[in-house]
Amino acid sequence: MSFEQFEEYSLWLGVGGLILFMVFIVWSLAKESEAGRFGTFILFLALGLGLLGFVIKTVLVEVLGIG
Fold first, then answer.
1. Which of 1, 13, 31, 66 stands 20 to 30 A from 41 (CA)?
2. Membrane-crossing residues (predicted)?
C-alpha cells in the first residue's frame, strides 16, 4: 500500500467517523432538550446540509479533476 492510498483511506475513515460522531451528538442534543419531532428534524437538516456540501465538493473535485 502506497502512502497516497493510506492517506486516502485514512481521510475517508476519519471523516466518516466524525460524521457518525456528529450524528450521535445531534441526536443526543435533540433528546436531552426534548426538541420534539420538528426540532429534531431541523437539527438533522442543518447537519445534513453540511454533509451534503462536503459530498458535493468531493464529487466536483473528482469530476473536474482538480487536485
1. 13
2. 12-30, 42-66
**What pTM was estimated for this model as a whole?**
0.67
Over residues 23-42, mean pLDDT: 91
Number of domains in the chain: 1
Instruction: Return the biggest CA–CA distance within the chain.
Output: 48
1 three-class SS: coil
Confidence of residue 19 (pLDDT cuts 50, 70, 90): confident
Interacting residues of 33 by C-beta distance below 8 A, sequence separation 6+: 39
